[in-house]
Amino acid sequence: MLQVNLLQVENFREHVPREFGVALNIVHIAHCTKAQKLFDQYKLAWGTIFELARGITRGMWTFQDLTEHRLQKLKGSNAESAWKVATIMADKVPSAKGAPSELWLEYDREQLAIVENKGRGLGTMGQWEGKEHWYGGKIQQVARVVKAGTSFKLELEKPEIRRSHRFARFLGSRRIFQVRVPDNLTYDKVGSALREFLISSKFVLCGRVFVPFHAKEGSMYLLETNENIDRQTNLGDGDSHRLTLYQFVKWHNPLRLNRKQPISKWSTRWALGLSTSVPTIEFAPENIFFIGDQHAVDWGEGKPPAEKIMTDGCGYISGAALTAIMRVMKYSSRPTAVQGRIAGAKGMWVLHPNPAHQTPDGPPTIWIRDSQNKIKLGSLHKVDSAHRIFDLLAPSRVTGPSRLSSQTLVNLAHGRVPLPVLKELMADGLHEEVRQLTEWSGPDSMLMVWRAVEQVGRVVTSRLRRRIAGQARALGLGQLRPNDELAAGIDDCDDSGSVNRGRNPHSGEPLTPHESVLELLQAGFHPLKLDRLFSKLEYVVTQVLDEYIEKFHIPVKESLEAYIIPDPYGVLEEGQIHFRSSELITDPESGTQMDIVTGSVLVWRNPTRLPSDVQKVTAVSHPKLADYFDVIVFPVKGERSLASYLGGGDTVTVVWSKRLVENFHTSPLCTAPAGLTGDFEREVEHVEDFDTRVTSLSKKEAQIAFQKVLLLGLAETKIGLYSKFHDLAVYERGYASAAAIRLAYMFTTCLDASKTGLRVKAHVFEKDRKSCGNRKPYYMAALEQSTEGQAISKRKDSTPYILDVLVDEGRRLRDDFLKQYSVLRSSSTNTTDHDLTSPYLSASHRATQASHAGLHVLQDNLNAVKVHVQRAHGNWQTAVVLQKKPSEGRGSSDPKSQAIQKAVQLFARRLDLEVQIFSDEDLKAIMASYAYSLSSTFGFSVAFAELCAIKARAQGAVLFADRFAEVMCIPNHILRALSQAQDDVDD
């Protein structure tokens, strides 16, 4: 049994059955009694079994295909066998050059740690199997729910090294399963049937039983329990260290100690263990202190509401602890604050104000506020060490400039910022970004374009995020605010919608257009001389324009975003803030540099749905706060916290642009309308009440009732609909209208529904839905390109609506820019590139000379190349004229794309030459060159990487290995120097 400390296990009446998740319906993801015996007989590694099961759920093969003959060849560790599964199942011989990916090596590291059973996966134990500072839990095992007739089934996806969280480190990645639930399956009758299916089931994958324990943000999480189906516990596989769901509950969120909590809030606390994090340092139990919060001056006794808690969600941490975290994470300097998880607490921890606790030496110490402590675990001397490790989410840092959003623009306009100012901001931002992408004259112009494309596509950051899976935010590279709209409820990023990875394995072309443009530029191509580059750059420019117009992402140069902390010394007055940057900030107007922002500023958090969500305050410089870098300090004085005026989330935007600040007038506080709670069903049942209720239920009914509690996150919340209702009310009745304010509070209450247990009453929702109908604001309909046949809502106010104005202005600017871009084509000299035709022409010339000398084998080789390439070209031509059809589901591609890929694969197939005279490298270059000579588009479709290499060699290339090229970028000061040097030459 895994050596976890269960001393905090409850002895309260506990009518809740001691067995959790056992008496549930059995659903097979993939299971076969006969195959299971063979898996056990040959002791197949878990990764190998998973890959076999994945093929079955995807219809690639069946259990009948898993013959002894094939499975015998898959014996061994994950690294030895898992990567061979597809090859063996196709009865092919694995390549002698084949090697396991990092994924399968990581599976083996984790497996050794599981069997060792010393908690090594939690981190903090140093080197392991060739990895420094190793910790586990980095592998994501994912399935997706799909409709299967009148029921549902799960399809497995390939495991990936993506992110790590406390649960996966504690149990091992293989013990945690994530099931993604598509949005289209969550509504109406289908949604009800799906929820019932998931809540009442346990899932079997090759003899192992996985039970759901939490659901959030479109995903359900499952735990492998100690139950077996058609197999025996395998001690050598670490099976004896598995936990029951009952033991897991006691380890993470003990019912007895938290029995006074609403059961809905108790359920949401599972999210703490699923936050993407990096384990850093372990605190000794005697150095973890629990302290109270600071409250507003007028607050008396009793539990205060959130707005009266001036230190909500922020505790203290010693300088020694911050220094230790800096060393573990290899930061260049010690952060002022860190966001993380420890024990049952979450939030921010900022450097302790007492100089005695700021020194870099001594035992790491942490102080947890009451407002941070979400789960009571009992004595920290008795709990498992996993609870005393600080799980780091992110350090304090600054990003900028910030961008406005549609909601912020509406707020600013309501605050009397003139329309011309906001239109000018949009035009300035667009002109600047498009200028950088389309200035193509001058010897170094392509360097400028390269940098601009890299920035708008966030290419290097995306590549880094792919390589440092799950550590981006902790290393200061991820987003400060993972999701604008749901910032209050999300503190981790699953990256399930992350960028495409890598490149086409046959043509070598990157899978993202931005990376394709970069590689074409790097090779030495110019957009006026290569139509493919011109077209791809046009796509990038169009995307920039569309993002501005559709998302209203308008940059404000005089702005930044950072985490907020409460004033540790209490020196700021009400209405004051303090911000000091660790790096100098350059004022875009005057060119002066500063590290402290002073004067009138605007502050907000996203989303800004209420008029009072943007506040004008005074930024001051205070010597007592001089050591608090890269955090925005809010005052602890006043009748309510400054943060409570703003939307949710830890991140605040500060703007000091005079154009915005001087014109803006702060709105009075918008409070929730009277009677709002009457619009919601109150399902507020406490843990102890739930315990009493289930005593009258059967064993199975009680366990399903408990599963329903665990999976409250699957419930339909109406968040998206109330967001639309609010947008429409703002448009038709005004931003500060009673209807808009009510719907803003309906939205935020729905957002917190999983914690509060509140659900919108059915008749209230129907009334709200009918009042909104199918009408759309003009700007929304306009963004859909056609307003024909759409019900456009009417505004009561005669003044122009900011988003209507900006969408029209944006479309005008977009059309102007694209016209200017198309004019560039008129100066294009898109003739045949002789660098690219040279390898084929040179080979043809040599073959002709050799034939004259009586040596025909070169010509034979060349003829074979031509026949092969022409065949691929014919297939490609047939494919590109096919009609594109909509995809039938995730992972499937339309017939046109499939046909094109088959032509690409055919081209890449090795030539079967009786006698090969040309070297392999020469042959690749000749094939690519001949393909280009047949058609430029065809050539780049089938041999992108080789054509880039040919061009680069002709330009005098310096060769780079991928790992170098992928992390290189051009710093701004280099571009400034090149631009200045060009100006001097022009003068």
Describe what this molecule looks like in 3D.
By secondary structure, the protein is of the alpha+beta class. The protein is built from 33 helices and 28 strands. The strands form 6 sheets. The protein has a 7-stranded mixed beta sheet with strand order 1-7-8-9-6-3-4, with helices on both faces. Strands 10-16-13-14-12-15-11 form a 7-stranded mixed beta sheet, covered by helices on one side. It has a 6-stranded mixed beta barrel with strand order 20-25-21-24-23-26.
Which key features would you list for this structure?
33 helices; alpha+beta; 7-stranded mixed beta sheet; globular; 987 residues
Architecture blueprint of SSEs:
Blueprint: E1 25-30, H1 33-41, H2 46-57, H3 68-72, H4 78-81, H5 85-89, H6 102-116, E2 139-140, E3 142-148, E4 151-156, E5 160-161, H7 166-171, E6 176-180, H8 188-199, E7 201-205, E8 208-216, E9 219-228, H9 245-252, H10 263-268, E10 278-282, E11 288-291, E12 314-317, H11 319-329, E13 337-342, E14 345-351, E15 366-369, E16 389-395, E17 398-399, E18 402-404, H12 406-414, H13 419-438, H14 445-456, H15 459-467, H16 513-523, H17 531-551, E19 554-556, E20 559-566, E21 576-586, E22 593-596, E23 599-604, E24 614-619, E25 632-634, E26 651-655, H18 658-661, E27 680-682, H19 687-693, H20 699-710, H21 719-733, H22 738-751, H23 753-756, E28 758-760, H24 762-772, H25 778-783, H26 802-825, H27 834-852, H28 857-880, H29 895-908, H30 920-934, H31 936-954, H32 962-965, H33 972-986
Parallel strand pairs: 1-7, 3-6, 11-15, 12-14, 20-25, 21-24
Antiparallel strand pairs: 2-5, 3-4, 6-9, 7-8, 8-9, 10-16, 12-15, 13-14, 13-16, 17-20, 18-19, 20-26, 21-22, 21-25, 23-24, 23-26, 27-28
Helix pairs in contact: 13-14, 13-17, 13-26, 14-16, 16-17, 16-31, 17-26, 21-22, 27-28, 27-30, 28-29, 28-30, 30-31
